[in-house]
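Bench log. Compound arrived from synthesis this morning; before running ITC I wanted a structural hypothesis for how fe (ii) ion sits in the protein. Inputs:
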Amino acid sequence: MSMKENLERLAGTMKRWQKLENAAIAQTARIMEETEHPLIRAVMEVIKNDSENHYRIQQLIIDSVEKEYINVFTDDLVKVWDSIEKHIALEKKTIEMAAESLEALEGSKNVVQLYLLDYLRADEEKHDRLLADLDRIKRSMYP
Ligand SMILES: [Fe+2]
Ligand SMILES: [Fe+2]
């Protein structure tokens, strides 16, 4: 397959994936209407919000194929980078907070708190990784 065909296939897959995200958004909203359980509601809300984000990211990928290629190598990236570095430091601190919180619960059987903190820690690590990968891309372009 040519590069162009591959990209068209990618965009097609993104559109199919978006349908699943829409279904996930509707399904999680429905479950939230069915229950007052705070934990179930919180989990459904997380998944709903994430699905909305995923939909937007998929759209960005589609647009980068069908409308305009996203160029990383721009002055905008350099201009904002000081602020990004500050944010990288902030995210690192949140990971410390998660570790500290989990430490406080060591030996406890508070499954709900442990479950929620584990989610938060994984999410903060995800933010950290997202920024680390961005940093890697930047370094490869501005050595
Ligand atoms: Fe998703
Ligand atoms: Fe974060």
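What the model suggests: Residues 71-143 form one domain. The mean pLDDT is 95.
ITC booked for Thursday regardless.
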